[in-house]
Every structure is written in C-alpha cells, then in structure tokens.
C-alpha cells in the first residue's frame, strides 16, 4: 500500500496533526479526542513519540481508505459519513472514537480483497 496521503505529512515523512485535522475538516481538539490523547500533545512542536504513535493507526486507516476510494477527499467522506454495515450502523470515525480501529482496518482489508461481508 502507498505511504499515505502527502497532505498529512511534512518533510521527512513525519505526521502533521494540524494538516490531518484540516483534511478531516475537524478542529485539532476533535482529532485529539478521536484518537484518545490531549490536544496539547498534538499541538507540541515537534510532535512527540507518543503523539506520533497515537496518530499512526489513523494515518494507516486513511491510507487504506484512500487507496480504495481513489482520493483522500472521497476517503474522508466515507470515514466521516458512511456507516460500515457489517459492523453495525456506526461510521469509521465513530468506531475509531470508540477505540475499535482494528475492526475498521479489517473491514477495509476485506473490501480491498473483494470480500463484502
């Protein structure tokens, strides 16, 4: 799979939480809540190891979704608004907020492999 949408990285490939929040059309505080860390941790310059570790699963998820959807914009729309029917009625964003990112990764892996169960 590709390294990830370039818009969520900066020089050297490090994750930029502010740009990621912009791409998701949410404030940095909501991004922090989404991944279960403090806003202060995400606002730190440079981003610390713990902040990068918290963001990385989301970046990987969005990378998977972007590859399937064909663009970051379409992946973001799916992430925020489309319920994942095999997992119930919640969106990917709601599953991530609930700490269930592994199930969303699994769903995307199934979609990528042509399994729509």
Describe the structure.
- Strands 1-2 form a two-stranded antiparallel sheet.
- The chain has one domain.
- The longest helix is centred in the middle third of the chain and has 21 residues, at 49-69.
- The chain has 117 residues and is mostly helical.
- The protein has 7 helices and 2 strands, in the order ββααααααα.
- The radius of gyration is 14 Å and the shape is globular.
DSSP summary, beta strand count: 2
Radius of gyration: 14 Å
Form type: globular
Mean pLDDT: 88
Unreliable parts: 1-7
- Briefly note the structural class of the backbone: mainly alpha
Please give the alpha-carbon distance between the first and last residues. Answer: 22 Å
- The total of helices stands at 7
Biggest β-sheet: count, sense, barrel? 2 strands, antiparallel
Hey, roughly how much beta strand do the residues contain?
A: under 5%
Q: Which series of helices and strands comes N to C?
A: EEHHHHHHH
Strand order of the largest sheet: 1-2
* Share of residues in helices: 55-70%
Number of domains: 1
Describe the secondary-structure layout.
Elements (H helix, E strand, L loop, with lengths): L8 E2 L3 E2 L1 H8 L3 H8 L3 H5 L5 H21 L2 H10 L10 H6 L3 H12 L5
Antiparallel strand pairs: 1-2
Short structural description:
The protein contains seven helices and two strands; from the N terminus they run ββααααααα. With 117 residues, it is mainly alpha-helical.
């Amino acid at each position: 799979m590709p390294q990830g949408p370039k818009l969520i990285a900066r020089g050297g490939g490090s994750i930029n939480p502010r740009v990621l929040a912009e791409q998701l059309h949410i404030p940095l505080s909501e991004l922090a809540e989404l991944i279960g860390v403090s806003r202060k941790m995400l606002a730190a310059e440079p981003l610390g190891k713990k902040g990068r570790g918290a963001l990385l699963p989301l970046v990987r998820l969005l990378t998977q979704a972007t590859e399937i959807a064909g663009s970051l914009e379409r992946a973001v729309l799916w992430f925020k608004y489309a319920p994942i029917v095999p997992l119930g009625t919640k969106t990917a964003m709601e599953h991530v907020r609930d700490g269930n990112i592994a199930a969303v990764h699994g769903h995307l892996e199934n979609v990528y492999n042509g399994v729509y169960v």
